[in-house]
Design goal:
Elements: H1 5-17, E1 22-27, H2 33-45, E2 48-53, H3 73-82, E3 85-89, H4 93-96, H5 123-138, E4 142-146, H6 150-162, E5 168-172, H7 192-213, H8 219-230, E6 236-244, E7 260-267, E8 270-277
The protein binds adenosine monophosphate.
Length: about 290
């Protein structure tokens, strides 16, 4: 495991000298089966896999969960090792931001103002800035992100394209718990009652998908169905639900192939996001959770 820049360099130099290609999987730790599928994909795309574990203060606003974000580095290192990760890079904040937060930041542009943007001011700027720094530190050939954070993955793709960063970006499928809830480190915050209700988020997306498969394509009707099912779960509070093109994130009036419903929902004090491709040929994979 590497905590410092020197330790990271010491781990990467022999790999590079041997001609190995490197895949990077950035994470905030508290690893679950969703993360592990990213490691698997990364291992299929490069000779060596580097996972970063860093809870990035720059992407949290005041009042968010930075101070209580779950952490279990020992378990994470074990899990990552068991899935072929050769180097875990787990820096302290002072290693990532030796000059503080006042340096150059990456601006997401207009796409950063869509979906989660208005509800998490500065979030995507923080994400893009730390990912750009990780790309600089690790210099990966390929980086793997998850479809659960669809807007984040698209913004990172756009950053690499617009700033000519020369990293191949791959997006892995969204992985769900057996009852359909999108796997997330934040699911650990949920009380048993909240956890039961949280499955209603996916049920709401599936209900809209069911309507779509019956021939309904009107955005208003599909999103009404989402709201209706969420409303059956008293602990769920909708933040937004939108029908979007999954590449441009443009809002759509009518659903077609690949159209995606993206939602953010508060479940008690926990904010959860999810998205579903309407009419997809294969459902999102469901996995037995790992506890580390
Ligand atoms: P995080 O540790 O939550 O910042 O996530 C690190 C990476 O794992 C991001 O690219 C996420 O999109 C991805 N990820 C998190 N949860 C899932 C999931 N349920 N399915 C697929 N990818 C995920």
């Amino acid at each position: 495991m590497a905590h410092t820049r020197d330790e990271l360099r010491a781990a990467l130099t022999p790999l590079r000298a041997g001609g190995a290609t490197i895949a990077l999987v950035p994470t905030m730790g508290a690893l679950h089966s969703g993360h592990l599928t990213l490691f698997d994909m990364a291992g299929s795309l490069a000779d060596s896999v580097v996972a970063s574990i860093f809870v990035n203060p720059l992407q949290f606003s005041a009042g968010e969960d930075l101070d209580r974000y779950p952490a279990d580095l020992d378990a994470d290192v074990r899990l990552a090792g068991s899935r072929g990760v050769s180097t875990v890079f787990a820096p302290e904040v002072a290693v990532m931001y030796p000059e503080g937060y006042s340096g150059v930041h990456v601006q997401p542009g207009p796409l950063g103002d869509r979906l989660c943007g208005p509800f998490r001011p500065g979030h995507f700027e923080g994400v893009l800035t730390v990912v750009a720094k990780l790309f600089g530190l690790v210099r990966p050939d390929v980086a793997v992100f998850g479809r659960k954070d669809l807007q984040q993955a698209i913004l990172i793709r756009n950053m690499v394209r617009d700033l000519e960063l020369g990293v191949r970006v791959e997006v892995a499928p969204l992985v769900r718990e057996p009852d359909g809830l999108a796997m997330s480190s934040r699911n650990k915050y949920l009380s048993p009652g909240e956890r039961r209700d949280a499955a209603g988020i996916h049920a709401a997306l599936e209900a809209a998908d069911h309507l779509f498969r019956q021939g309904v394509s009107d955005a208003g009707a599909l999103l009404d169905r989402v709201r209706e099912v969420l409303g059956q779960h008293p602990r769920l509070q909708l933040e937004y639900a939108e029908l979007v093109d999954p590449e441009s994130l443009d809002a759509l009036a009518s659903a077609g192939a690949e159209s995606t419903i993206a939602v953010a929902v508060h479940c008690g004090s926990t904010r959860l996001i999810d998205n579903l491709v309407l009419g997809a040929a294969s459902p999102d994979p469901r996995m037995v959770p790992v506890d580390g």
